[in-house]
Amino acid sequence: MEQQDYIIELRNVRKKFDDADDYVVENFNLKVKKGEFVTFLGPSGCGKTTTLRMIAGFDTPTEGEILLKGVDISKLPPYKRPINTVFQKYALFPTMNVFDNVAFGLKIKKVPVKVKKNGQEVVKMVHLTKDIIKQKVQKALEIVDLEQFETRDIQTLSGGQQQRVAIARAIVNEPEILLLDEPLGALDLKMRKEMQLELKEMHRKLGITFIYVTHDQEEALTMSDTIVVMSDGFIQQIGEPKQIYDEPANAFVADFIGESNIYSGTIFPDHKVKILNKLFPMVDDFPLHEKVDVVLRPEDIIISKPGEGTVDGVIKSKIFKGIHYQYVIMVGKNEVTAQSTLSLPVDEKVSISITPENIHIMKRDATINAYDGYITKNNKVCFAEYDWECDVTQLLKGSSIDEDGYLVGPDHKKYDLTDAEVKVDVDLNKVMISDNVDECEVTGQIIQMVYKGDHYQYLVRNENDDFIVENEWTWNEGDIVGVTINKEDIKLKLKGDIKQYEL
Ligand SMILES: Nc1ncnc2c1ncn2[C@@H]1O[C@H](COP(=O)(O)OP(=O)(O)OP(=O)(O)O)[C@@H](O)[C@H]1O
Ligand SMILES: [Mg+2]
User: Where are the domains of the chain?
Assistant: First the structure.
């Protein structure tokens, strides 16, 4: 596709606020086509508003470029961009009526007109005439279906009507791009659903590009041409709604979009994957023995009589959901959420199977915590900004530590490992987290969590480093936790040759 076909392009955009250590938007690359409905979807604090503000021009990227039809607009102030924004808190003027609210921007706007002066054509900036303003406001109010409301006071309108005024005020300027930051956040569920359809219809009528922000996955799935799933400042996946739902790129996306069962699995020969302690046939091509994440959607789980499916289990709970029942089936220690129109009692023994096409396999982001560290002078290892107790004798077979703290090899050679660079590995289930923050010297915040059938996988961040933690206890996103790792669970590998540390 030619460059000009993209109305907006973000290239390697990163954003760090002046007083912060961390980037809140990282490595953001996105191309938006003219007329597209693109949605930024992700949990609170993941950088959606910040990205939108950079496109609008209210914030500048720390690095990277934002292109409008192929031209860098980083230096262009917001009012010179053909972009308007609708914010979550629609700041309408409470003392003005609907017409004046919508007309406000037009009244102060000046447009260039060609006039003859001394026989020469010159360009003069003039205000719009009253008639033109009236026409434009009426057209905008028509689009948001408020043509009868021109003289109404803002305070007498419902939330949904006020939101439509805010939209009319943004579209009256005839922007090429409309940015909408959680515009329906303040509305109740029913009104939200109505407004979703209306917005979609407005998008169709106007034919302009919409960039929409929400943390509601259902809203994103119903409205968008393209969804950008974000987490923690990073794009996790870009795709059409169906693609994001059917082929999530990783466990985070699978967990965030729709209901899903996520398990850690291993690839076996003959196109099989081991999950729930059984081999399930699959269609994807993955290297043998690879550790993967596997997603099973509840509606894809086939329930049959014991012994008839791939693995047996027992129904633990049952909820009626209108057209189907939602079951939690215990398969060994694992929970499997399944949907079926079949009514079965709790405690019933059943069997489950899944057709190979419905087994979605994803590459695992990380199977181990890996850090670059160094040995301190008292034989601790420094990584993730802390000096951890560790066993340095693992760096040389048959070695021990003498009373002076030197490493002594089986041949009695002595080594001073101070400042030796090492690779540090810690298994995911060996990083322990606890609520006793005061008793732990390392603390972190839970940034992400994914439930995997019989345990949770957490992403815990301290200053600049991440710990991936697997355990069966429940914490919430945002919790501050203490982090500990037992000495024997810290695996070290020397980066250079041990000879260089010989005394
Ligand atoms: N002006 C600022 N100065 C410092 N940090 C900021 C500023 N604005 C936002 N942040 C931080 O940047 C991160 C991303 O914020 P942002 O508002 O983009 O999130 P969001 O995805 O829109 O979240 P929400 O769904 O809650 O609106 C947050 O950690 C936030 O605290
Ligand atoms: Mg926001």
Answer: 3-82+175-246, 258-363, 368-501
